[in-house]
Amino acid sequence: MNLKAFAVISFAVATGMLSGCKTAKPGTNQNNASLGIITAPEKQKTVPEWVPKPAPYQPSRTQLNDIIHTKLRVSFDWQKQHLLGEATLTCKPYFYPQNTLILDAKGFDIKSIELASGKELKYTYDGKKLNITLDKTYTRDQKYEVYINYVAKPNELEAGGSAAITSDKGLYFINPLGEEKDKPRQIWTQGETEASSCWFPTIDSPNEKMTQELYITIEKNFKTLSNGTLIYSKNNANGTRTDYWKMELPHAPYLTMMAIGEFAVVRDTWKNKDIDYYVEPKYKNSAKGIFGNTPEMLTFFSQKLGVEYPWEKYAQVVVRDYVSGAMENTSASVFGEFVQLTNRELLDHSMDEIIAHELFHQWFGDLVTTESWSNLPLNESLATYGEYLWFEHKLGVDEADLALNNDLKSYLREAETKQVPLIRYHYQDKEDMFDRHSYQKGSRVMHMLRKYVGDEAFFASLKKYLVENKFKTVEIHNLRLAFEEVTGEDLNWFFDQWFLQPGHPQLKVSQQYANGKVILNIQQTQDSTFTPIYKLPLKVVVWTNNQKTEHPITITKANQTFELPAAAQPQLVLVDAEAQLLGTLQHEKSPAELIYQYYHAGKAVPRLQALQALTAKTSEPEVQKLLQNALNDKFWLIRSQAVTNYNLTTRRFNNEKEGAKDFSAPEYNPVKQRIREIALKDPKTSVRADAIATLASFKDPAYLPVFEKALQDSSYTVVSAGVDALISQENVQPYQTKLKNLKNTESEEVVAALASFYARHGEGTEYPWFEKQLTRLSGPALTSFLPAFAAYLYKVENPERQNGINAIENLAKTHNAYYVRLAGYQALTLLADEHGVQERLKTIRNNEKDERLQRIYKQMQ
């Protein structure tokens, strides 16, 4: 599972309304916060908000019976949205003799249960658990087969889910009656965490493993996908077709999947294995642009881990209205529709991050599986680190380090209100495990472990872990023991402080130079009542007389001083020189030191941090010189940050009218000329877009031709930047015709920009366009569209205004995704002064059943 699901709540995150996203605490340095080096707040006298709350112990499920093999025969009632199923389970007692079989089976109609021999079995059923009385007591050496005829009715289940997996009904019918003109008919499943038992009876626990067969009977126009190999497709006399999929290697029930739809299947191969991409037909020509790096990923991961990709094939399918980002079902990953991009959209966006994540899961999560949701980071932290490994291989260490730095910042945002151990044996709900701890924090921890033991030992340890535990389930100590056996070192200290304790270190560094030494004082300022004092092996680099000296240090105390030899006053002292630390680091530096850091640090992250820290000093001559160099840097994000620094400075000048030079001064002409060149010619589309935004901040009509040209760029990101730039112009009439040419775009980025443009400059005639987008958009695109739509409604009169309010209200009340309902509610608040809207908001609050939204609405009142 990929936490890209959090992207779908970006609108809610941006508005600070989700429980894990709040504004910075008093005393937090906002500039440093943007770097991931947050100044620690003063210790609080009361218990901090982030301290873990008491929660029950959550053990691994006790294994009474073991499902060895599952055979399923399924067909469907589209009208009722039911699955008609026959399950034959081959089982045996796990260890102790058993005369009953208890299965998870949620919301079924049970037609009959019998042994394979035909003998009817007695059972009790409460709608969730199926308790079957066997014909005798079986020992662990005796297998038995149970046949269950049933109907699964997922839409009749009580709604549930989490931020990461927004629904848990397991089986989904998309546009089942074909009533939505522009939406395909599909059926697909989502098993994690314990939702496979919503469509077939099983022991729905991650510490269960089984082989499987799946016979899918469906209309002939549909293609199917499941785990393992397609053995045959057989046409039936009634006009249907039965596809037989067989999975010969064991895996956990939550990884069982099927997907059904009118897909285009684009074929690829890797080492004589089928590598298939299932997409909607309109994306057939761009499927290899989206997924085409998969064979190279398979080669790279297999070689890096020393363990060959273990499954019979690998397929990737894109489905509509998916309830998460993506899911690593064994040999067949499922992705949300956001990964479907045209070749033009691929100029701006790559899906390699999420593709690499799900593929790495085929080893970590599928081949070796967490035994309990408490140990979820054994799946997700490693899969997230797989993203880093792919970027490091494909794009270089700078790109990989930037992704890892983004992981740090993401975790730190969550840590403001939540700090829990990575491995959590106490939690309220298993869904709580799917957070930025299990993903982003865990990935950074794996990187620190790699840096500590070294590359050779790190990958040898992962290989040992995979080989010794393949087709098994594990807990955190299995990983620790693998590393200890390879390295020969007791690593309890590392695993205890990083996996089993909450929080992170907060370092405050001060330095002075005396008697040929750099005296470095490092304090751990985190509240040690709730967070450990860490053992931190770090690298400190000192530059003296332009000579670089590396000093390995190990911090073990709350307040510790290190003396490092230096022949002269150092030009720069860089603590955590490799930017590997999971934590915060406050180390005040002068502009001269930051400038030196930019030129000499080497790696992208410390160079970028220096640029960001110099934002407030843009008008100083030496900083100006640095920024002009940065505008020509070979690394795209350095160029982007330099461009952004000018944008931020201009905006500050425009807002404050003091404290910064006006960029209209003649000495800035070369800078503006270079930014103009970047806007027109930079090879990276996002840098061109950033440059356009900076030119717009100058409020100089001389750049209008640049914005006009952007409207015809091959990149949708650049086009949308051009539209955004025109929003701030006083006279937009000359561009209305050009903008009308964009109204038929399918680009969600351009649609969002146009919506903002019309919200400010609309002529009141664009309502049909807004109405069309409202029915076409979904997911995060819809949430970002709604505020602009609400603002636009002030430009139109009734009945269109009331129609628009009604449409937003309907989304806020009835949309199946909670984050879209939230976006609808927030959009309505922008119209709160309209007659009756306050009462509508009250009704929405009172009728909302989702506890997450109930909490948010209470905060908003």
TrEMBL record:
PROSITE patterns: PROKAR_LIPOPROTEIN
One GO-annotated biological process of the protein: peptide catabolic process
Residue ranges constituting the Peptidase M1 membrane alanine aminopeptidase domain according to the UniProt record: 293-498
Domain of life, per lineage: Bacteria
Cofactor requirement: Zn(2+)
EC number of this enzyme: 3.4.11.2
Residues of the Aminopeptidase N-like N-terminal domain: 69-255
Record's keyword terms, sorted: Aminopeptidase, Hydrolase, Metal-binding, Metalloprotease, Protease, Zinc
Reactions that this protein is recorded to catalyse: Release of an N-terminal amino acid, Xaa-|-Yaa- from a peptide, amide or arylamide. Xaa is preferably Ala, but may be most amino acids including Pro (slow action). When a terminal hydrophobic residue is followed by a prolyl residue, the two may be released as an intact Xaa-Pro dipeptide
Cleavable signal peptide: none
Alphabetical list of InterPro entries matching this protein: Aminopeptidase_N-like_N (IPR045357), Aminopeptidase_N-like_N_sf (IPR042097), ARM-like (IPR011989), ARM-type_fold (IPR016024), Peptidase_M1 (IPR001930), Peptidase_M1_aminopeptidases (IPR050344), Peptidase_M1_dom (IPR014782), Peptidase_M4/M1_CTD_sf (IPR027268)
GO cellular component, one term: membrane
One term of GO molecular function: metalloaminopeptidase activity
Family assignment from sequence similarity: Belongs to the peptidase M1 family.
Protein name as catalogued: Aminopeptidase N
Organismal lineage: Bacteria, Pseudomonadati, Bacteroidota, Cytophagia, Cytophagales
